[in-house]
Model the fold of this input.
Amino acid sequence: MIGTILLLLFGSAVVESALGPWAEGSASGGECMCEAFLPNSTFPIGELILLESTAVEINYKLEMEISKVEIYEVKLEVYIAKIMNLTVLIKRMEDDPDSYSELHIEEVKIKIKQVEALIVELQASIQTTTTVLLSIREQISVMITVLTRLEITYDKNLVLVTRREYIILQQKLEECERRHNEIFNPDIGICNHSGIRRFSKPIISQLNANLNAGFKYGGWGKDSNPLPGSENMFWYSASSDTLVNTITLYSDYYKLIMREGFKTHELYVRYNYDWQGTGNNYIVRENTLYYQFKSPFAMAKFNMTSVNAQYKEIPSASTQFSYHYSANQNLDFAADESGLWVTYATQESKGKLVLGKINEQSFEVEEVWQTSIFKPSVGNTFMVCGVLYATRSVDSKTEEVFYTFDTHTERESYVSIPFEKFQESYVYLDYNPTDQKLYMFSNGYYVNYHVYFNHKN
Done:
């Protein structure tokens, strides 16, 4: 496939002049067969062949895992039916114990043990599938990173064709994970857990849509409360400085990776309006961008449906206290299962972080909590189920959640939940309740993490 594309792109004359030694031989039917060796200094054909081989292997693995998930669905239906039948039988025995002998009781015990054995077997299978899916995702992420580098350095047309194949693999993986999550993680949007247990390894999608590592200030993610029909939409905004000038929308993950946005909103138009923001602390909720207004210093929201912006000042908020990794992150917006939040610091709090709950209808901070952590020492914060999580750097490769504040109990705790960093620093970190992922923007790269919880049941 790659050799064919090379000939189509360069033409035989160009290829012949660029190639080194030729290997000649005779093919069946009297045709002459020539094998060309293209040095990597001219074009990285060796890397592409290796990537294509890996893609075939991953495709096979994915097909196997998808078939397993289908089997899990069938098994679950069987297990549920068995458990329901057992429940009905035990209820009858409780209501009328005299009608059942010791033999009946022993039979029920055997059935219970059989179901227990089946559940243990299924749990082991699930764990294996989860491990394989994480491994596949890491492989695909590495390949897309390599292809992004090749696309910048070498001929873009060929790399783009090859890269599309990996995007298809990425889509297959997303579909397999989605079905896996629907079966085994049915509680997205529900807070029946006691907090975060751990994070996955970083999942690196690719360099930003501008293909510019200089665009290191920015963010990306999904709408935390999407309008009907926008459940798969992604957004992206970035700049070479901390100004917030534009936001681009993508209909789904594939379009994001292929940099095919369907709408870009400009927050600044000369002689018309200046709705610019600053910092890397924004989110999208119900097709509305919540961000820090540039002038005056205030919280702002830009409705991307009506294409209109409004701002509202927080009287006590200060511009002197930003996060550790980036300047101008004075107002940090977050969204979780329970609504919209903003964190900031004040002169009165002496730089200690303040958490506010925003009423989305009135666009007012309606409730405030004071924490004990100094905001400039914090890497970033995010909200999950009404609980604030704050991060800090452990070393160049490790970040950790070190502090939590529960708004339900007003209790704060010091914890240690480490996770691996893609690069030493990052400017954006936010949780999305629609898929239970953390979205990070790290030196221009799209990065995300799966979040795993301590489930009560």
About this structure: The chain has six helices and 27 strands.
